[in-house]
Each structure stands twice: as structure tokens, then as C-alpha cells.
Amino acid sequence: MAVEADIAVWPDRAGGLTNEWYVDADHFRREMAGVFGSGWACAGVGAEIPEAGDVFPTTVAGQPVLLVRDKQGEIRAFHNVCRHRGILLMEAPARRQAAIRCPYHSWTYGLDGRLVRTPEVGGPGVGEADDIDRTALGLLPIRVETWLDFIFVNLSCEASALNDLIDPLVKRWAAYDLSLLKHGGTRSYDLAANWKLAIENYLESYHLPWIHPGLNSYSPLELHGYETISPRIFGPYSEAYKADTVDDRTLPHFPGLPEVVAPRGEYPLVFPNLLVGIQRDHLFGIIIEPRNHARTIERLHVYPVDDGTPETPERTQALDAMMVGWDAIFLEDIGIVERMQTGRSADAFDGGVLTQFHDRCTARFMDLVADSTPVTPPR
Ligand code: FES
Ligand SMILES: [Fe+2]
């Protein structure tokens, strides 16, 4: 697979975004509306709601969202708020629910969002009332589409089809039989940092020798580069994915990978908030969930290749080792990302310096964020 010509041109910026972009709560709200509100954002994965009746509360653009698998097995998303008095409906994931019941006054919604019960609403023992039109008071739906196991939502309902965003990546990864991926593990991280810093750190390999000396020993900096797959999909890659040779870790590989593809690992951002990584034996996704200007949840989901051969203890061990390996690397990153957030309280910092070699993906990301945000402080 030849690397397509890198369509990235060095954005018109020498410095990074200024402190306001990281420490200002009002600015965070504008940014969420602009960056997450209009297009597609990743909200979760199917493995978080594997069976009918499973519900998973999360946030998108700082807003409470409920992912639901309905009775027919279809994935739906709703605003996670009761239509009566606006209470947060679900605080924690729940499995195999027949319906979604509000804890405050017991209004009950079907898995399709319809309001089906309003007990005592017309007085004691009276479950209906002339002034309450249940048909107009269902859960507020959110537009949903999926790619692989990833659930994307579009809050504005105005985005073009998800395929328009994802198609360049689908084409680029055509050599991988992605239908063989099977959910294999998950981790969650709670960061005291702005969501952009988590992404900016992912988009450069410059820090490898100092923050990830273990990773750098088998995937060294000199074998890393940066590529632009589409204007909204870009990130680093490694020419030397060898993690599956560490500790005799053997998981099935994607069958039939061309020689030029097999040693590569690619780590693009699908703007705005899905970090993906593909290697010859697995794919992972990290959903970046901004909670507020200084807090971010990361949900890592790992998908090894399932080639249909029977599970063995060695394979289970290999998967465990892989999860431990990624966990260690992502924990190494978290300390640094939180420390960057702390650094943003230095008024003298002006956004810093972006290097043309290592930071062009970061620069592109910053430009997309800045261009999407309605009223912007200095860039
Ligand atoms: S707030 Fe939900 S039933 Fe009253
Ligand atoms: Fe890192």
C-alpha cells in the first residue's frame, strides 16, 4: 500500500493555541458547540451496549447523552434528560432494561424513546391527564450512525452522511479485513486536562524517547512519521510495529497483508475525538470525552483479529499482555498531559512553538478547532 501524497500543507501557524483555549470555561462551551455540535463525534462503542435493553450514559460536547440498544438490537441515542423536570435520567450503565424509568416521578420511556407511563400524573391513581400529551414528550433523539463498532452521533442533525467523513480511512485500510475484529478489552482514564491536550499529545511522536522509553526501544522515533489521510483524518505512523514480538506475544494477524503494510502501525485522529490505531494483529480506538475545560475522560477499546481459530490460554495471555502494554503507555502519557494543563496557568505562556517536522498534525488539529469555534479568543 503506497502512502498517498501527503495533502497536508504546513498550516499558517507558528505557535500553538493560547491559554484561553485550555483554561476558560466559557470558551469551552463555545468550542463544544462549534467543534462537536455540527458534525459527527464518536460517543461510544457497540460493546458498551452489547444486548437489547443495555443503556450507557456518556457525554458529547459536555452534554449528557444516552446510548441505547433497543429491542430489535438497533443502536439509538437520546439526550439523557427527563422531559418532565429535566433530571439526568441515567447516571450509570445498566443491562437488559425493559424500559427507562425516571427516578424522580417514575415517568417511563420505551427503549425507542416513547413516553409510555406517567403514573399518578392526573392525581392519585390516575396515570393520564388531558394536559399531558405523551406522544409529544418522548426522549429527545440524537442522530446516530456507526463505523465498525464505533457509535457516532450528530447533535445538530445537519452533517452529511458519516461515510463522507470515514470513507478515506476505509479506503486507506482496505488491505485489512476489518470484519475480523472482535472486542477484546477496555480501559478508562480520567484526566485533569483539557481534551485538546490529550489529542495533541497523541498526534506527535517527538516525546517517545523520553516519555515511552520502553516503546521507543522496539518502535524508535526514527521509524515514525506523519501522514494526512484526509483533511479530517491524520496522525503519526510507525514503520516498525513490533509489539507482537515482545514477550512472545502472538495474536492472529490480518490475513493476506501485503509485505509493505504488515510492519506498519497507523495512529490517526478522526476529527474531532476518535483516536484510532491499526496494527497487523489489532485495532484500538480511544474516545476522547471532554467533560469540562479541565477534565477529560478517555475510553480505550481494543479489537484483536479473530481468525476463527479456537481460543487458547496462550492467546488469552497474549491479549492480556497487549492490554497491559497499552495501559502502561497511555498512563505514561496522562502524567504529561496533565502537566501541560498545569503549565497553561502560566500567563507568560503565549501558545509556545510548533515544529514543522513533528507538529504539523497538531497544527492541523488546532486549525480545525479554531475554524470551527464561533467566537474565538486569540489563536
Ligand atoms: S423529572 Fe422525570 S418524571 Fe419527573
Ligand atoms: Fe505518548
In short:
By secondary structure, the protein is an alpha+beta fold. It has helices spanning 20-23, 25-36, 162-172, 195-202, 208-211, 213-218, 313-343, 360-372; strands spanning 41-45, 55-60, 63-69, 75-79, 100-101, 108-109, 115-117, 141-147, 150-154, 185-191, 224-230, 233-238, 265-266, 269-270, 274-279, 282-292, 295-304.
Notable traits:
single chain; 379 residues; alpha+beta; Naphthalene 1,2-dioxygenase Alpha Subunit, Chain A, domain 1; Rieske Iron-sulfur Protein; 2 domains; eight-stranded antiparallel sheet; six-stranded antiparallel sheet; 8 helices; 17 strands; 25% strand; binds FE2/S2 (inorganic) cluster; binds fe (ii) ion
Protein architecture, described:
This protein is an alpha+beta fold and 379 residues long. Helix content is 23%, strand content 25%. It is built from eight helices and 17 strands. The strands form three sheets. Strands 10, 11, 12, 13, 14, 15, 16 and 17 form an eight-stranded antiparallel beta sheet that branches. It has a six-stranded antiparallel beta sheet with strand order 1-9-8-4-3-2. Strands 5-6-7 form a three-stranded antiparallel beta sheet, with no helix packed on it. α4 runs antiparallel to α8. It is globular and about 70 Å long. The site of fe (ii) ion has 5 residues, from loops.
